[in-house]
Amino acid sequence: MTTIVARHKVGNFNTWLKGHQERVKLFTPSVSSFKTFQDTDDPNSIAIVAEVTDMEKFKAMLVSPDSIEAQKRHTVLKPITVSMQVEP
Fold first, then answer.
1. Which phi and psi angles does 12 have, rounded to 5°?
2. What are the residue boundaries of the structural domains of the chain, listed by start?
3. What CATH fold (topology level) applies to the domain 2-84?
4. Mean per-residue pLDDT of the chain
5. Residue-wise pLDDT tens digits, 51-63
6. Rounded CA gap, 68 and 21, in Å?
7. Which residues neighbour 61 within 8 Å (Cβ) at sequence distance 6 or greater?
């Protein structure tokens, strides 16, 4: 399992937040859990910390047609930056 942080902006936080259950459904095949954070200085900037169980499925999900359509509905703005946890 790999811990990742995904960051991006959204056009409208409330619209994005309403899509939570849809995101859970999209992420479930490759993510065991995730937590959502909102930037304190920019309400349309979010971060997700997730436990990825299958990185290849996760990467494929991010660019799948279903995910792209969900991103549009949820007002996700590019780029989506994904960082992986590293051990020193």
1. -150, 115
2. 2-84
3. Alpha-Beta Plaits (3.30.70)
4. 96
5. 999 999 999 999 9
6. 16
7. 26, 27, 29, 30, 67
Q: Would you say 38 and 68 are in contact if contact means Cβ atoms under 8 Å apart? A: no
C-alpha span between 72 and 16 (Å, rounded): 10
Q: What is the mean pLDDT of residues 35-64?
A: 97
Dist CA 45 CA 61 (whole Å): 21
d(CA 87, CA 60): 25
- Distance separating alpha carbons of residues 40 and 53, to the nearest angstrom: 29
The pLDDT tens digits for 61-75 are 999 999 999 999 999
Contact 47/3 with Cβ under 8 angstroms?
no
* Alpha helices per DSSP H over the chain: 13-18, 20-27, 55-63, 65-73
